[in-house]
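Example 3.2
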Amino acid sequence: MQNIISFAEAAKHTKEDDLWLIVNKKVYDITKFVDQHPGGVDTLTGAAGKDGTDDFNSVGHSDSAKKEMEKYYIGELDPNDAEKLKAPLKT
């Protein structure tokens, strides 16, 4: 069974020492990756607390970067929370 995470819960985790991202309706706890991110902490905290799909896709991440994200996956965004996001969710 997949873990369903509300937008409100995901939006609580926006700090460098507790950072979750929403990308493609999936929620990732990237706290342990923050210091390794080539774009820096500000890039990640700027994408936290909202749908970060456009931010993630606009950079043109490599296939290896996308694969790396898989290990930080913690659940699916609650589909009932889609209207709370700044941009519509992508599939």
